[in-house]
Write a structure and sequence with these properties.
- The structure is a single chain.
- This protein has 249 residues and is of the alpha/beta class.
- The protein has a single domain (8-234), classed as NAD(P)-binding Rossmann-like Domain (Rossmann fold, 3-Layer(aba) Sandwich).
- The chain is built from nine helices and seven strands.
- It has a seven-stranded parallel beta sheet with strand order 3-2-1-4-5-6-7, with helices on both faces.
- Strand 2 (32-37), helix 2 and strand 3 form a beta-alpha-beta unit.
- Helix 1 packs parallel to helix 2 and helix 1 (17-28) crosses helix 9 (219-230).
- The longest helix is centred in the middle third of the chain and has 23 residues, at 105-127.
- The termini are far apart.
- Bound molecules: NADP nicotinamide-adenine-dinucleotide phosphate.
- NADP nicotinamide-adenine-dinucleotide phosphate (NAP) is lined by residues 12-19, 36-40, 64-66, 91-95, 114, 140, 142, 185, 187-188, 190-193.
- NADP nicotinamide-adenine-dinucleotide phosphate binds at residues 12-19, 36-40, 64-66, 91-95, 114, 140, 142, 185, 187-188, 190-193.
């Protein structure tokens, strides 16, 4: 029997990168997966197709998870399609790096709007849909929440908020058997890290001397941990932060 047979999972920002890999891995373990995206319908449709071709169940749902009305729509669509909710992966997030004097109010609104406000509002809505048996919430944070490199103050602050939110909420929701954990990746090659120019700028090479395992990550290095946190294998684990970084801290 697959680990997530009969479970329903929503993965935010699953049209690309880490979210897409998580959606595929959850689907391969038997979960019915809602592949959320904001703009990349083609990417989301490809992820859905690959899950279906592997024998799984998935549907793509457009919703900007920094907006309350879209978040409500996302979970209503999940209920309509699959009838229940067991797992939420809060993966959608954006990263931008600027020295303090270059941080703008618009950038603050954008990064906190999605990475923090959106994540909290999405969680609040999801919890309404978990059944009496509880559920699992998996927040995708980052190694920068604790490493906090220079020119990453804004992005690091958003992920620090995610870590703290995770710990507090785990205590609050534990009695309802809703577990809340964080995955904190190190540098991972994704559409996003290509699009932001980080790969082209040689960022991976800069991180290698401090990476004991000697390579940057791939989305498939991260996704199995989401299956673990979603499944009963982690049934007595909540409020934890798992760093997946090749050993870089
Ligand atoms: P990515 O390749 O840029 O993909 C981002 C995903 O989020 C896309 O599916 C995108 O969908 C979606 N998205 C963006 N804004 C959204 C919104 N408002 N509503 C719904 N979906 C939205 O990102 P990634 O590199 O895989 O990163 C994923 C997560 O991991 C982020 O939270 C990031 O902070 C974290 N992380 C990444 C790394 C890394 O090195 N890559 C390291 C540590 C942590 P559309 O294309 O449709 O907009």
């Amino acid at each position: 029997m697959k680990k997530l047979e009969g479970k329903v999972a929503v993965v935010t920002g699953a049209s690309k990168g880490i979210g897409a890999a998580i959606a595929r891995h959850l689907g391969a373990e038997g979960a019915s997966v809602v592949v959320n995206y904001a703009a990349s319908k083609d990417g989301a449709d490809k992820v859905v197709k690959s899950i279906q071709e592997a024998g799984g169940k998935a549907v793509a749902v457009q919703a900007d998870v920094s907006k309350q009305s879209d978040i409500e729509k996302l979970f209503a669509a999940t209920k309509k399609e699959f009838g229940r909710l067991d797992v939420l992966v809060n993966n959608a997030g954006i990263y931008e790096f600027s020295p303090l004097e270059k941080i703008t109010e618009a950038q603050l609104q954008k990064l906190f709007g999605l990475n923090v406000f959106g994540l909290i509002l999405t969680t609040q809505e999801a919890v309404k849909y978990f059944g009496t048996e509880g559920g699992s919430i998996i927040n995708i944070s980052s190694v920068v929440s604790t490493m906090a490199p220079g020119t990453s103050s804004l992005y690091s602050a958003t992920k620090g908020a995610v870590d703290t939110f995770t710990k507090s909420l785990a205590k609050e929701l534990g009695p309802r058997n809703i577990r809340v954990n964080c995955i904190n990746p190190g540098f991972v090659e994704t559409e996003g890290t290509h699009a932001t120019g980080m790969i082209a700028a040689g960022y991976p090479q800069q991180t290698l001397p401090a990476t004991p395992l000697g390579r940057i990550g791939q989305p498939d290095d991260i996704a199995p941990a989401a299956v673990y946190f979603a499944s009963s294998d982690s049934g007595w684990i909540t409020g934890e932060t798992l760093f997946i970084t090749g050993g870089r801290r």
